[in-house]
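Follow-up to my earlier ticket, as requested here are the two runs.
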Amino acid sequence: MRRHRAAATVVFTVDGAVFGSWASRIPDVSATVDASPTSLGLALLCVSIGALAGMQLTGRLCARLGPGLVGVAAAVATSAALALPGLTGSVPALAAALLVFGVATGALNVAANAIGVQVETAAHRPLLPSLHAGFSFGGLAGAVTGGAVAALATPGVHLLVVATLGVVATAAVAPVLLAADGAPAPDDHAPPPRGTTRGIVVVLGVIAGCTAFGEGAVTDWGALHLQEVGASPALAAAGYACFSLAMACGRLAGNGLVHAYGPTRVVTGGATAAAVGALAVAAVPDVEVVLAGFVLIGLGLANVFPIAIARAGAHAGAGGVALASTVGYTGLLGGPPLLGIVAEEVGLPVAFAAVASLAALAAALAAPALGGGERVLRAARAALQRHTAQLGVLYSQLTGPAGDRRPYPGLEALAT
């Protein structure tokens, strides 16, 4: 069990290191190909298109072949594809490279979460937040390394080295992951969720997507925003490192927080904190404030995505993981290109306000989706019926004969 959990952590860490390395070199790659914010946003859109295509197939492949085998293949492909963007010399070539990178990344994201649910099911306790901490620590390591070598190595050399290390690390844990597929969990071959269950899984995916939108925004545009407010290239790369460190620390504490406060409070409080941090990033053009905002976003979003994915797996098994992951990663991969288009028109500060609005939406959806939803809906329905009846009485008093009108509580205040 410990070996399986450690191997799953390595897969998440490789995924994070690849993403962090790419994020730290986006400004350099953009300058190399002379991309404007709009053209860079369109190139990043290719990551989204490729990832969504890869995700459509990965859920079925995990059910048929096992998440371990699919995860190993996807991790190797993602590591290898990381080297491609650094070798390009034009925007069309970058777009093609990012399309391939997106297919591999989408497959790895779904497969890694399927592996995580497999580990969590075998352990009979929440583990997905701590596994996602591996992704954050990997992103931190990739961003720190990228910032350190930015002045020493070209993006092509740097990303090629990271790609090689990713393949080696994946090969080291492949036997453990493949062995775990030998005893599939009972829900590995479950059909895709349907009906009401499917609706709940989609809502969970929307929660994950709203928060993943913020993660993608900081990943792809955080360094550029810091440069715009006066940060040096090294400090701009450190912005994603601060974000990843905060998210990693939050996820390490995630299991205890869920046990102490419950998933609904953790998601609601975290998403609210992230909204506050995003508003600070959007409103205050100061390097220190933006860095603090990134830290608050990282802490707030830390456990939202893994909690949503874990709950989707509990509702509908492997099919639920695939569906919620696909919906969720749409925010992670589709958000940055949209932010690039918005930034071209109104600037990055205003674009980051969208992160705050979607985080607030995730906080609002937490109670109906994560437990107590029926109770909340019943209370809302009863309140609606009660106030509708009161409005009916008020209407009759306002429109009936003067002699029939009776005092109504709050009528004078309402008239005022």
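Run two:
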Amino acid sequence: MPALPHGPRIAIVGGGIGGLAAAAFLRRAGLTATVHEQAAELTEVGAGIIMAPNAVRLLRRLDVMRTFLRRAVELEWGWEFRRWADGSVLSVENLTDACEELYGERTYVTRRSDLLDTIRSAVPSTWLRLGERCVSVEASPDDVLLRFADGSRAEADVVIGADGVHSVVRGVLAGRTPPEYSGVCAFRTVVPAHAAPAFALRPAQTIWLGPGRHLVHYPIAGGSAVNVAAFAPAGDHVEESWSATATTEEFHAEFADWDPRVTDLVLAGGRPGRWALLDRAPLRQWSRGRVTLLGDAAHPMYPFFAQGAAQSIEDAAVLAICLATSPDDPEQALKRYESARIPRTTRLQEFSHARRDTNHLPDGPEQETRDTSLAASDPLVTAGWIYGHDAEAALTT
């Protein structure tokens, strides 16, 4: 294989959180890349996102924490589980001191768009190519050809597919099979702080569990708003676009018989978004030749462990190290990357999948057993394999 004297030409398809994180970590590792994003401007839809210690420690290594903390809210309480009918607390973890003591970082919540801006600050603007929708990927032993909808093309030594659950790049590796609908839809809305009930303004991630449904809320945007995300049976609703909407009445109807604090919060929000959750089975292989996947393109997962973006960031950090360590042998670098990441992300996909059923148990013996288990456990400790993981250190051990 001929040497690549200036490092491999790296093309990243997708300019979301995962794609920009890949660019940022590649820059940190001394490599260069081009990000091809189909949108005319970089935006991140959706409202809130949780940044647990396993992701925060990597953001800190990008030297973007000052930017991140301008709008992020530090959680004092996390995984506060409540019963749907009366709000009785089933379990709660105190994050104030224990989180940093256990894992070396704290837990934060923020807007997805603010996180995107934070990561973008670590990527040179000259690396970004907007309005380029990738329509095909043609790989040969020596390089990869990308074709775009406007007729333009680009050649690369390495292609990273960070283009989401409908990934064009994934189709090259795993076939163009559509994702499956989960039978669950998600509602989301943002409530201005002045309109939110006082209990929702606390720096806590509160999860209300009920039959067939659950609802999550926490403050975002420096405490100026509350993010609300709820999950309910999808019925005939199969649209998965983040831009799809419902009505406040439809959202309220799903939770009408819940604790009044929940319904008050739902009614205080603006027009809610609603999208169907998609499902894909874990892949046994992410890479082929000079092409690989990252984030939702590789391992879409239900949001019930709040680890989707965090795992994209972990992917990016590990991939950058692998490519920087073997710049003249991209294929070997990508094999090392997928070997390091597939076991962890597969485990998280499976755990997130199982939590859908656990969160939505009907009232009865199984629900009572779940609630008893929640009360007896410390989520901060039981989730240590998630929060305590250092993706970069794990690669070198």
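The only thing I checked on run two: DSSP finds 14 helices and 18 strands in the chain. Let me know what else you need.
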